[in-house]
Amino acid sequence: MNTVLSLTAILFFPSGLFLLASGLLFEWADRKLVARFQNRVGPRWFQPLADVVKLLAKEEIVPDGVHAGLFTGLPIVALASVLTAALYAPLVGLPPSYSFPGDLIVTVYLLSLPTLCVGLAGANTIDRFSLIGATRALTQLFSYEAPFLLALLGPAIVTGSWQIDEVMRAANGRWLLLTQPFGFVVAVIGLMGKLELPPFDAPEAETEVVAGALTEYSGRGLALFHLAKDVCLVVGLTLIAAFYLGGVPNPLVYFGKTLVLLLGIAGLQSLFARLRIDQTVSLWWRYGTLLVLAQWFVMIAWKVLVS
Amino acid sequence: MNTTQQAERFTIPIGPQHPALKEPGHFALTVDGEIVTSASVRLGYVHRGIEKAVEERTWVQNLYLLERVCGICSHIHATAYCLGVEQLAGVTAPPRAQAIREVVAELERIHSHMLWFGVAAHEAGFDTLFMYSWRDRETVMNLLEGLTGNRVNYSANVLGGVKFDIDSAQADAILSGLDFLEKRTHHYLDVVSTDLVFLRRTRGIGVMTRQQAEVLGAVGPTARASGVERDIRVEAPYAGYSEYPVSIVMDTTGDLEARFEVRIKELFESYRVIRRILRDTLPPGDLTTRVPRRIKENETVIRVEAPRGELFYFMKSNGTDMPERIRVRTPTICNMTSVIRLTVGHQLADVPMILVGIDPCFSCNDRTAVIQDSCGNRQHWTWEKLRQYGIEFYR
Amino acid sequence: MKIGAMLGDVTSSLFHSPATEKYPFERRCAPERLRGLLQWNPENCIGCGLCAKDCPANAIEMIVLDKESKRFVLHYHADRCTFCAQCVHSCRHGCLEMSSSLWELAALNKEPFGLYYGDENDVEAVLAGCADPDTGTPDQG
Hints:
The complex is a heterotrimer.
Chain A: H1 2-11, H2 17-37, H3 47-57, H4 68-86, H5 103-123, H6 128-159, H7 164-171, H8 176-179, H9 181-194, H10 220-244, H11 251-271, H12 277-306
Chain B: H1 3-7, E1 10-14, E2 26-32, E3 35-42, H2 50-53, H3 59-67, H4 74-89, H5 95-123, H6 127-148, E4 157-158, E5 161-162, H7 168-194, H8 196-202, H9 210-216, H10 220-224, H11 232-235, H12 256-279, E6 298-306, E7 309-317, E8 323-329, H13 331-343, H14 351-357, H15 362-365, H16 383-393
Antiparallel strand pairs in B: 1-2, 2-3, 4-5, 6-7, 7-8
Helix pairs in contact in B: 3-4, 5-6, 5-12, 5-14, 6-7, 7-12
Chain C: H1 7-13, E1 38-40, H2 50-54, E2 60-66, E3 71-77, H3 86-90, E4 96-98, E5 114-117, H4 120-128, E6 134-135
Antiparallel strand pairs in C: 1-4, 2-3, 2-6, 3-5
């Protein structure tokens, strides 16, 4: 019985197929909101699904000079890692399927695997655009990963535990957004950096390096990378909503809070021009890290004074 | 990749097929990490043989062929051609026609600058500004469609004058459209000069000093942004610019931000001069004057100010109803060397911005080039040899 | 120095409908001067053939059946036409105009683009090949 429940949780609901579907739904919401901010109509609800279906139906062309195993295997690893990371997050407002002490670190690590896979995929080819895109992706990874992790650890410090389940239950009802505003800002912007959303889309800048590290991908590999990015969006939004926006006790509240967060992210996407990669790095290492470290000092000082 | 390959610099090809380019052109950039160390350009991908084709069509037919050298500056090409033919034949178009030519030319300049603005914002990754500026460009395109009958390729000119008149209803529509556009242009000037992230992509990038601009032969707003005081509409007024003059818009900084500001301020000048022409009534009179079918033997030179810079036509007639030779020199070819010189030392991410800063129009600038080797021998290819080369290349 | 100078535009767009014209469900009225498909009114035509001579794309062929009784057929290649309206300007008797309502000209094959204007019997005669096609200008296409 337990095995059946576990398999259902992993394959169908709330992870697995349901998670893929909600990833497509969130991608649609993001594209539609950005379009409305730009005074356009935007795609219809089934557009991301149509994109995935079309990509899966196309021929996969393996370019010369690549390691074929890596080429076909990296998209699978990327998608598998985010699907695994999702098992520890409170999707759809339900408690996480699995939980153990320290799973916050494991989740954040698994969420950064897709970027590593993209970087490796870009370095795997002899195409110059992919190499430059891979270099930029990995540079961006090194810049935002530390502040993002520290921002997510803020609520964990306050709770005194590094288990997502416990942090979420402790944050239930308490909007840590108000007490840790810097952490919230860094977490949201860090999520944008992780997903390579504008203004941090230098690694896949269309007008400079055609598609960055994924230039040589088409067909199934590209579809899996896109799905990995969508699932990463869902899991990231879930974690931020659970930690900073006062927990997600039931599905209605979950969708409400994540969609409001997505509205904010779409607004930020449409407001700014693209940052150059060196500007991204200096922004993160100057303001991002300093903000979150200042937040930490305040938190730790408060904890020491109060206890 | 072994270490020797890693130590070598990369060559990044921008083009001929690239999302940054709206038209094909090939830039080979050698980069070291993200810094460009050298650049070279190769053009000719959109060569259509227009200069050869004009020799086999009559003067009337050539007007429409030359109008289609470029899509965005089509009217100015047609105007230059008409002025040239009228000079060859020794006639002058009536003042009302010249004023209408000026109105359409300035509306076209507005259209071209707004299009450029959107494309430049897109190259910077600022898609929102791209969408809004192109939404506002629809206003000027609708005005042109109501006035001339088409959104691009206006066919406003005929040899000896213009095809249509501007009545009061049209004038009112144009004036109210310009009011809306002027409000939006003020907003865009504000965005371009104060938005922090956008300024970090444009301020101090691609700086060209006045000496460099003069040596490299830059023309148009690209040169005016570096302090070179050249505008054909002011130096050598044509087609109504003597009665309704414009003032030169200049900047001295010479970076990308200056080029943005110069073009947006030129929009204000265009609004002002169109309003002046339409509010003081147009000079009364005919719309066309008679131009003979066979033009006597003569040759002439025409210079006009396209939205991108100085456009130059050399025309020669031989007494028949077909031209002997027409030579078109478009402004983009003058500005292209500045791109190659300026990108060296900048980051790869700045290259599309510098390229779009000169407002490139690759279709305009593909003409034949004469290749001369060091001994002074010229390589001549006949029509048959060219065809044979094409056939064998693809075999 | 502002961060997010487009904020005003972006937020107000949430409360307005999109600027997109939802063609083909919404069609704007075409302006009066739109240069659509060529229309010929044969009443005043004298068969001078200037329209065919001046066309930059050789899209008009004037087929003369009988010059004295003014029986002409205009063979209009709409696929070659550049919609420049030079023919309209060249005709000194106002026989030609560009339609402002016929501008949706897409078709699946070349057939709809070969248009014959003129009296029905004359057109039939031309199509049957019985008339003597004394064309006004050599076909340079």
